[in-house]
Write a structure and sequence with these properties.
elongated, Cdc23 domain-containing protein, mainly alpha, APC8, cell division, TPR-like_helical_dom_sf, 576 residues, TPR_rpt
């Protein structure tokens, strides 16, 4: 049996098993990967397949690995694991009636009724659903208490009161060896919420090694791997699901190139997976390859026109490129599809921000946070809006909420730096800029912000500023700020040779991009004077002649320089 057929059989069984246990997010994920496997043309005609082979240039572009390369990847050990077995409790008739009733209550969000129905059932399957329903009942009550005490966006220390009893029961089951992979997943979830991260990691590894098709367990495990050392220490079995996990983990750890390699290898088998395409777009977004990201998201919307997941990132790209019409169309599209999704609210917020209607933009970001107060993107974007409105206290609060949710969000740390810089507090700003640049060292904007902080009157640490501008220049400085500032700082410090070097490099780039402006004039003027002082009169004359094309005071200065150059050249040629 081939790789694709193995994966297809495993995922079909996983969708049924996960859905039967009410782990619907993992079931949905498995079903999406199932249809992402290229169908056998002998069994499926084009009219029966969701995606057409020739419809995507993006898939062809990113499928760099063949099936052979996919199987040779150590972590993609499809051949090591057989099709999921029929689980022990799947065919039990003893508790089936009670289980069906409890599952119906669960699906209607009547969690405590589901728990009560299964109170006397001892099979692994009903025990999991009973504990899971009790956990969600506690989560539901926690959310209610939050709103009652401090509103949907308030800070609080309210906890799920059911965690202690669930942990006690699941700990006993694990010690007795009478716990299955799904209940291990729930146990890991409980331990994570209680702050027992090390034990939670151990338990979740046991869960995914026992049953690797539960993506929810992998996702929780990833959230506990905050460093590459922690990730590498995990003792995971070889399976193709491990490749999905590692690709996702690399992305969250900002190892974007490694993540892309993994996803491109996975496309050898899951060639029509929208999930993989979206993850590739995320990695390229982090690498600021906006053109590629835009093409991928356009393709995703053609394949899945009612998709909202990840579309907020697409809106960020359209915002950065100032594509008014495309962003307006996307906002209208998600509004009609589901206007009360956090992603939809963020997209509409971006649209109003691009129009300069910052108050209305904040309203939509707040709506997104009412729907999901841990929605990181909304806190960060709302902070940006408050910065635009010059409301720095509100901006600082929004950014702090973002870093509370995810301390690895470099955009929020950068936003905090900007806010404190606006308040004239460069020492605080520098602290936050350093945090952001540690998390995203390849972003030139962060190095430039830190350099400008060093240049302020309070700090005036020009040597440190020069180091930061050098790093920015080596990080593909698209705003073309670093080289010019390096030239100016070296000139200010009296280092004419270094200043000339950077002015010349900056001038070459401006000429290649056909850019005009004061920076170009400044570079020509400095180089003219520099070469005149070096008695390289021919070079100096070239730059002076170019300045004659301008109509401002630089033209008169150039004429004066040319007269001086010619005079000195004449003096040089006088007989002794």
């Amino acid at each position: 049996m081939g790789i694709k057929e193995n994966c297809r059989n495993e995922l079909r069984a996983a969708v049924r098993q996960l859905s039967d246990r009410c782990i619907y997010s993992a079931s949905k994920w498995a079903a999406e990967q199932l249809v992402g496997i290229e169908q056998d043309p002998a069994k499926y005609t084009p009219s029966h397949t969701r995606f057409q082979r020739g419809s995507s240039s993006i898939r062809r572009r990113f499928r760099t690995a063949t099936e052979a390369a996919f199987t040779s990847t150590p972590a993609a050990g499809v051949s090591h694991v057989a099709t999921p077995p029929v689980l022990e409790d799947d065919n039990e008739a003893i508790d089936s009636d009670f289980y069906l009733l409890a599952k119906s209550y669960f699906d209607c969000r009547e969690y405590r009724r589901a728990t009560h129905v299964l109170r006397d059932q001892t099979g692994k399957k009903p025990v999991f659903l009973r504990c899971y329903a009790l956990f969600l009942a506690g989560e539901k009550r926690k959310e209610e208490e939050m709103i009652e005490l401090e509103g949907p966006l308030g800070k609080n220390d309210i906890v799920n009161h059911e965690l202690v009893s669930i942990e006690r029961e699941l700990s006993t089951l694990r010690k007795n060896g009478s716990i299955d992979s799904f209940t291990l997943y729930l146990y890991g979830l409980v331990l994570k919420q209680k702050g027992s991260d090390n034990l939670a990691r151990t338990v979740l590894v046991e869960s995914v090694n026992s049953y690797p098709w539960n993506w929810s367990a992998w996702s929780e495990l990833q959230s506990l791997c905050t460093t590459s050392e922690t990730l590498n220490s995990l003792n995971l079995n070889n399976h193709w699901m491990k490749d999905f996990f590692l690709a996702y983990a690399y992305q969250e750890l900002r190892m974007h190139s490694e993540s892309l390699v993994k996803y491109e290898n996975l496309q050898g088998t899951f060639s029509f997976s929208n999930y993989i395409q979206a993850q590739i777009a995320k990695a390229q977004y982090s690498l600021r390859e906006f053109e590629q990201v835009e093409v991928i998201f356009e393709e995703l919307l053609r394949n899945d026109p009612y998709r909202i997941e990840d579309m907020d990132m697409y809106s960020n790209v359209l915002y950065a490129k100032e594509c008014f019409s495309a962003l307006s169309y996307l906002a209208h599209r998600v509004f009609l599809t589901d206007k009360y999704r956090p992603e939809s609210c963020c997209i509409i917020g971006n649209y109003y921000s691009l129009k300069g209607q910052h108050e209305k933009s904040v309203m939509y970001f707040r709506r997104a946070l009412k729907l999901n107060k841990n929605y990181l993107s909304a806190w960060t974007l709302m902070g940006h809006e408050y910065v635009e409105m010059k409301n720095t206290p509100a901006a600082v609060d929004a950014y702090r909420r973002a870093v509370d949710i995810n301390p690895c969000d470099y955009r929020a740390w950068y936003g905090l730096g900007q806010a404190y810089e606006m308040m004239g507090m460069p020492f605080y700003a520098l602290h936050y800029f350093k945090k952001s640049v540690f998390l995203q060292p390849s972003d030139s904007r962060l190095w430039i912000a830190m350099a400008q902080c060093f240049e302020t009157e309070q700090l005036h640490m020009l040597e440190e500023a020069i180091k930061c501008y050098r790093r920015a220049a080596n990080c593909n400085d698209r705003e073309a700020i670093a080289l010019h500032q390096l030239a100016k700082l070296h000139a200010e410090l009296g280092r004419s040779d270094e200043a000339a070097f950077y002015y010349k490099k900056d001038l070459e780039i401006m000429e290649a991009e056909e850019r005009e402006g004061p920076n170009l004039v400044e570079a020509l003027m400095f180089l003219a004077r520099y070469y005149k002082a070096q008695k390289r009169f021919e070079d100096a004359e070239v730059y002076c002649t170019r300045l004659l094309d301008y109509s401002g005071p630089e033209k008169e200065t150039a004429k004066s320089l040319l007269r001086g150059i010619r005079y000195e050249m004449d003096v040089e040629h006088l007989p002794p």
